[in-house]
């Protein structure tokens, strides 16, 4: 085992091994079933919402909170003391920044955004006991590979039936409008004026989300030494999304894997990528991806709206006064700015984690919240490859601050399995919740004697 300053007990092997059968407790089957249900909801229900007070609450958030409550009632999860402290520090800093914004009577501040921030991250204050985490982690990764394989199959099916003449239509329009998430580019063509639409597997918020989940599928499949045919399926489905964010995520993950695995894996990965690029160069898709690679230079492109303009607009907003730099413009400002931008230009501005934090909570809230991010996804991680991939997904490629789709995926793939020396000391000093509950076999004799 090797220890770093950011992570502890990272296996030297690049493949995550299956835990020995002796380490699996009887209750682990129930835990695995609950985690699988949460994973299914996160992947296949991400477009569903609940109307609340004129706004929308993504269905995944109440499902996750209910799952946490059920697991707590069975003693399957416990408070993670390190993350709880980081959570309280981050929320205190954000509340202080929000209070200053409210006292300054700034426009576009919303208390509901602050409340949603609290609710979104409460589940990440919990986690599995170290022994359970070690046994369940590889098994939930196997479930994730299975679920993303299904997602890849649906994405390919959606694209293939268009090639044989089916005219694209959003099949989820059968669900009432108010119960479908708004504000996402769910359906759009591979090129302007084309009748061929990017694949989002029907159920993903956007093709970009579909591509990122598929990229995670590739990474986890590699970590679990999956079958070769899955990689072919993943790559074909990833290309059907015609989205660059999944490619970026996969490229970063392959770099992390190469650092971890060494020169042999790096060479193999380069050869594989070279073959894919070579085959792609003989198809019409080559010109489409070439355009996507340079689109950040255009103000109307999704690349600019995601990776350039949110940062330039944040920089301009912070140039107003020192109080804005320290405390921000108040909760919800970035969302309202993006809405106003859309009404003016009909273009969707996508604020990633850092510009949204700085705009809404200033330097004070940003520093405290980034410390919480490290405690969620990095410190004590069982796999720095997964941690790095989740951090990039969460902080750069998606508007992840108030997105339960993003935070729940990070929770189910990394956060709930982190183990630090502090966690082990905490667990040694307290009884196991399961051990504290007497079994029915032990209770029966006592009841008979009475």
Automatic annotation (TrEMBL):
<feature type="transmembrane region" description="Helical">
    <location>
        <begin position="231"/>
        <end position="257"/>
    </location>
</feature>
<feature type="transmembrane region" description="Helical">
    <location>
        <begin position="390"/>
        <end position="417"/>
    </location>
</feature>
<feature type="transmembrane region" description="Helical">
    <location>
        <begin position="55"/>
        <end position="72"/>
    </location>
</feature>
<keyword id="KW-0472">Membrane</keyword>
<keyword id="KW-0812">Transmembrane</keyword>
<feature type="transmembrane region" description="Helical">
    <location>
        <begin position="141"/>
        <end position="161"/>
    </location>
</feature>
<feature type="region of interest" description="Disordered">
    <location>
        <begin position="424"/>
        <end position="450"/>
    </location>
</feature>
<feature type="transmembrane region" description="Helical">
    <location>
        <begin position="84"/>
        <end position="103"/>
    </location>
</feature>
<feature type="transmembrane region" description="Helical">
    <location>
        <begin position="269"/>
        <end position="290"/>
    </location>
</feature>
<feature type="transmembrane region" description="Helical">
    <location>
        <begin position="358"/>
        <end position="378"/>
    </location>
</feature>
<feature type="transmembrane region" description="Helical">
    <location>
        <begin position="109"/>
        <end position="129"/>
    </location>
</feature>
<feature type="compositionally biased region" description="Low complexity">
    <location>
        <begin position="430"/>
        <end position="450"/>
    </location>
</feature>
<keyword id="KW-1133">Transmembrane helix</keyword>
<protein>
    <recommendedName>
        <fullName>O-antigen ligase like membrane protein</fullName>
    </recommendedName>
</protein>
<feature type="transmembrane region" description="Helical">
    <location>
        <begin position="31"/>
        <end position="49"/>
    </location>
</feature>
